[in-house]
Amino acid sequence: MGKQVPIVDYLVLDDDAPHLVATVCAECGAQYFDRRNACAKCGKGEFTTETLPSAGTVRSFTIVNRAAPGVPTPYVSAIVDLDGGGVVKANVVNIEPSPDQVRFGMPVRLTTFVAGADEDGTEAVAFGYEPA
Amino acid sequence: MSANGDNVWILGASMTRFGRYPDKDLIDLGAEAALDALDDADATIHDMDVLGAGSLLDAMSGVGQRLQKQIGQTGIPVYNVANACATGTTAVRTVFMAIKAGEADMGLAVGMEQMGKQGLLGAAGKARGDKKVYEPQGRYGSVMGVEGILGTGLMPGVFAQAGMEYAHEHGGVDFEQFAKVAEKNHQHSTLNPLAQYQKPFTLDEIMNAEMMSYPNTLLMCCPTGDGAAALVLVSEEKLKALSADQRKRAVKISASVMTSDEWTESDQVQPDVSTLTRRAADQAYETSGIDPQDLDLVELHDCFATAELIHYDNLSLCARGEAGKFIDEGGPWRDGTIPVNVSGGLISKGHPIGATGAANLYEVATHLRGEAGDRQVEGAKVGLTHVIGLGSACAVHVLEKATV
Predict the structure, then answer these.
(1) Cα separations (Å) of B227 from B35, B39, B61, B230, B355?
(2) Chain B residue closest in CA terms to A42
(3) A117 three-state secondary structure
(4) Spatial contact of A129 and A108, defined as CB atoms under 8 Å apart
């Protein structure tokens, strides 16, 4: 198998246990996924890194039928509330993209899939959530 | 001129019809609205102490100065502004603040945009172009474009998810209720000669139109287009010295509020369009002393049908959680308890981005003056405008029919 890299740096590809990590404000606990200059909630500048739980529930979703060029449709985009705190946006995968199938509050869990490969054969691994 | 606590008034207002103007340029549109607003105010460019000019797509081109070169180079300060879909309102607020600060007695605000037929906004350049060799880039260390892989960040999806979140929190809002919003706005637009589209659609036609991002179909999304709107603002002190005709038609700005996102957890992964709207509305009601139930009409930012429905709640036009019931009962229709978007709204009147916020103010002011023709809300005395630009910027204005 060729080399694999995560699609974003807040996805950690530990061999058997891929997971998300958040940058967390040491003062107020606000969670972020991007590189930070300071905390947008409290203004302090100290951060720690936390592993996020893989299980959550669907807070909101849409089924995208018309998308940017090159993006396969239809697909389910969702906002997921993680069990124990934290909010993530991702696709819901391994489900029929239909409003009859996706439900509010539906339990989901993190999964990964290969989203593409570069010219060296390195694969980009993305994450999504599937019905739990 | 000195800093004052007096009200600022709308003395003149105008907008072009929204649509597509391939034979005109951005400045033609801005000049048409500006010159007409000046005429409407019975003033000239030489009376203006400040110019606020807004265009989002042409934000780097000095639109205010380009406009001056067509309608009057008088040496006054020009502020070119860009603030997403709140750009036009931001131009108005720039003039408002200059008058409030005592730097100007009278000023001109112009919002303009020429978009043409663009299709899905933001989609260009976001194609999933694989890099030759993956290298983490940007603040998320992404090795490739993530649109469509890690959810959607494009407008139809963002506002669909905002509507669905409301549906989740307040059970009972469904696809049909969202579609009813578009049915209303398309119907309203048939009375507005300035609307880009003036065609009614049945609920069936709306629900069976091409699905863009569930639950928003094509007929529940605003179009792109071209247009401009302009306002002449005046200080209360200056207004008192103007003619009886000018004073009679002047409209009082009873509140002018702008907010941005305060920190919320979900806002970190997707724009939270509700919190800042609620905050702006609450401040506007407090400043003006107007109760939501006193409103005779509202022009709010219905970029998508899902957006309008949740803003009924955010603007307190209905009880918390009852936006679905509000549309079911006909509350926001032109003969309802609080008519919303009698212009046709962004969905049918159109949404040339930089013009939109100024056009909402034009619409409400025109009703308060009793000059809205076939679409006039009879006896309108108080109105509210709302605009939101993703990122986000929100502005709420309360206008009143009054005299000095």
Answers:
(1) 14, 18, 17, 11, 6
(2) B263
(3) strand
(4) yes
SS3 category, B389: strand
Query: Which residues does residue B315 pair with via DSSP β-bridges, in sequence order?
Result: none
Judge if pTM exceeds 0.90.
yes
Instruction: Identify the pLDDT of residue B3.
Output: 55
Parallel, antiparallel or unpaired: strands A107-117 and A123-131: antiparallel
Residue ranges of the domains in chain A? 4-131
Please give the single-letter amino acid code of residue B278. R
- List the helix and strand counts (H, then E) for chain B: 13, 11
* Mean pLDDT score, B157-179: 95
Chain B residues touching A127 at Cβ < 8 A: 150
Secondary structure, 3-state, B224-268: CCEEEEEEEEEEHHHHHCCCHHHHHHCEEEEEEEEEECCCCCHHH
The helix or strand, by DSSP H or E, that contains position A113, with its residue range, turns out to be strand A107-117
pLDDT at A14 over 60: yes
Give residue B127's pLDDT band: very low, low, confident or very high (50, 70, 90).
very low
C-alpha separations of A39 from A34, A52, B119, B263 in Å: 11, 19, 37, 10
**Cβ neighbours of A89 in B, within 8 Å:** 150-151, 153, 269-270
- The residue type of B45 is I
Test mutation, A71, A75, A77, A104, chain B, max B CBs within 10 A: A77
For residue A77, list chain B residues with Cβ-Cβ distance below 8 A.
Answer: 151-152, 157, 161
CATH superfamily name and code, B8-117+223-401: Thiolase/Chalcone synthase (3.40.47.10)
Contacts of residue B321, defined as CB under 8 A and 6 or more positions apart, other chains included, come to: B169, B170, B313
Core vs surface per residue A76-111: b (16+ CB within 10 A) or e: bbbbbbbeeebbbbbbbbebebebeebeeebebebb
Q: Are A65 and B215 in contact (CB under 8 A)?
A: no
Phi, psi at B87, each rounded to 5°: -60, -45
Q: B152, A77: Cβ pair inside 8 Å? A: yes
**Tokens representing residue B301 in the block:** 């930012």
- Report, as an integer, the average pLDDT of B129-154: 89
Percent of chain B past pLDDT 90, that is, above it, reads 93
Contact in structure between B37 and B13 (CB atoms under 8 Å): yes
- Return the pLDDT at B126: 45
CB atoms within 10 A of CB B397: 29
Please judge whether A10 and B140 are an interchain contact, meaning their C-beta atoms are less than 8 angstroms apart.
yes
* CB contacts, 8 Å: B215 with chain A: 62, 99
Tell me which chain B residue has its CA closest to the CA of residue A65.
B212
Question: Which residue ranges make up each domain of chain B?
Answer: 8-117+223-401
- Report the half-sphere exposure of B351 (CA within 13 A, side-chain side): 24
